[in-house]
Fold L-aspartate oxidase.
Amino acid sequence: MSAQANYDVLVIGSGAAGLTLALHLAARHRVALLSKQRLRDGSTWFAQGGIAAVLDEMDSVESHIADTLDAGAGLCHPDAVRLTVENSAAAIQWLIDQGVDFTRERGDYHLTKEGGHSHRRIIHSADATGRAVHSTLIERVRAAENIDCFEHHIALDLIRQPDPQKGRFRCAGCYVYNKQSEEVELLQGRAVVLATGGASKAYLYTSNPDGASGDGIAMAWRAGCRVSNMEFNQFHPTCLYHPKAKAMLVTEALRGEGAQLKLPDGNRFMHHFDPRGELAPRDIVARAIDHEMKRLGADCLYLDISHKDGSFVREHFPTVYNNCLQYGIDITREPIPVVPAAHYTCGGVMVDQFGRTDLDQLYAIGETTFTGLHGANRLASNSLLECLVYARSAALHIDGVLDSVQPPRSAPAWDASRVTDSDEDVVISHNWDELRRFMWDYVGIVRTRKRLLRAEHRVRLLQQEIREFYANYRITSDLIELRNLALVSELIIRSALERRESRGLHYSLDYPQLRELAMDTILVPENFADQRQFV
């Protein structure tokens, strides 16, 4: 890529949301697709369970909506839920048309059941659905003439420009760090789409790959966009506990097919916390595991599917089976040691049904966003569905308005003339480690106001150190991610402090009761007013 390039649409992120949107636009528009690593190195590739959709005649749209609303603990926006669910079958058909090979059983697509669902409605490709979807979409994107893919490019900051015709600011592109040349480049477009995923790397233990550093949320906030419900961080109940395993998720579909959670002594315990047992929603299961681990002083608990037929387990869960076998664990014969880990960011950048943010010509889709679908707790396997539905909705809107949008004015090149190379990169690694540790300890599954205030104090001190480092030394990918993670962590902490109740994924020992009125937590940046009026 040259030092400056212009496109119709700039898509930042190469997961299911970004790829889907790019493919929907490629017929008429020139698209740049940015990936901070390889195209496949995002959360989508590692998604195991599947995609929730109304595909069975015994199921219904109303049932799927009801399950989503129930899991969301009063905070789901009904219009967003209905939009997503009503378009679920069409989204799956589009994937099938692209060539995704979903698992069949006796000729029909096999549907499984996960926690919080009242019906079997999870379509999947064995236990590697994300890989099947992601690899197919990547293949389609690489074959598309109008899509230019830029791997190993990290978006740094969005560019705002005044739009005299509308009397407010618009997004005009972004500065991009090229990891291979180690230079900051300029990309501009008539529309910019954030599809950068979530921020689970803010926590010490996570099921997410290294790239989940909240980049899109942080960039949007700095550009003047509101965020909502950042306190709702979903912790997946079951990640493999092993000293050599890194971020290995053990799919919830195991519990959907009869896997049992057990204490170190072999006894089951979930029935003490919820009548649905192992099929309770994720927040309940994660809190139950956390409670039992702390009560017993245990390093982990166990997920056991060894009572099922071995051939069934190997056929339906080949990824989990083979991954565990690498660590000497045969899941057909013994239980899996598991711990909860940060998994999904339910809040994010506020958008409407078309993915529009508060900044003109800036869109956001996928885990980066707050659409109102997930409420206080994401229902299992609704996330990939949200990516598909909102990517198509945003693409249709962009396609409908882009011809009337003027190209942005040329922005100034990145100025690195007053910075030097750092000889103190250890500061970045130490700050990164400290941030993730106090987020885990103070802003985790169970919270108190004292812990949150302590975390708020620490994150602001860290941000001051990061700002000084950022102002004086050359950009690196680690510094970009640390800067974004620290900002998003502050937004999580501030949101958690504002919610004085326990609801969904936010559980406070100081405020254990549920408030009668369910309200979103909305944070407004200082420069928010600039979006609507400038002088």
